């Protein structure tokens, strides 16, 4: 079967169309869709990296990470900054400075949220 070769500057546009606009389908379906019409070097690797860094997919995915502990119910105190919640979001595509995660801090009372870029999720950095 003859396939169109995608120019380097259009590769991520093609991946975006077949992944994002088709409902954030998985790696195999995205690759299958692209290969029905197109080809480009390192297709499988590029699709895999794109999907692993897709913010929308990361937001709704429970893949990876450490298993959660048991939930505990805390008394809600009506005082700002009495209780804060922390969590990491990521990994994302690394920035020029090497940041791959976002530390999310939420005040339980006001719901005010702070976001801090981090290079890892270790306690040493946090």
From TrEMBL:
Signal peptide: none annotated. Gene3D superfamilies: 1.10.340.70, Ribonuclease H-like superfamily/Ribonuclease H. InterPro entries: Integrase_H2C2, Retrovirus_Pol_polyprotein, RNaseH-like_sf, RNaseH_sf. It comes from the Eukaryota. It holds the Pfam family Integrase_H2C2. One of its GO terms (molecular function) is nucleic acid binding. Residues 6-58 form the Integrase zinc-binding domain. SUPFAM superfamilies: Ribonuclease H-like. The lineage of its organism: Eukaryota, Metazoa, Ecdysozoa, Arthropoda, Hexapoda. This is RNA-directed DNA polymerase. Its EC number is 2.7.7.49.
């Amino acid at each position: 079967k003859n396939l169109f070769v995608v120019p380097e500057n259009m590769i991520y546009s093609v991946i975006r169309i077949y992944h994002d606009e088709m409902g954030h389908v998985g790696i195999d379906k995205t690759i299958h869709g692209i290969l029905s019409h197109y080809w480009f070097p390192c297709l499988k690797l590029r699709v895999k990296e794109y999907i692993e860094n897709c913010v929308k997919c990361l937001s709704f995915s429970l893949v990876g990470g450490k298993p959660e502990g048991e939930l505990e119910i805390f008394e809600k105190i009506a005082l700002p900054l009495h209780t804060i919640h922390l969590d990491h979001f990521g990994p994302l595509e690394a920035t020029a400075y090497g940041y791959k995660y976002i530390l999310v801090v939420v005040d339980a009372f006001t719901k005010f949220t702070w976001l801090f870029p981090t290079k890892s999720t270790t306690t040493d950095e946090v």
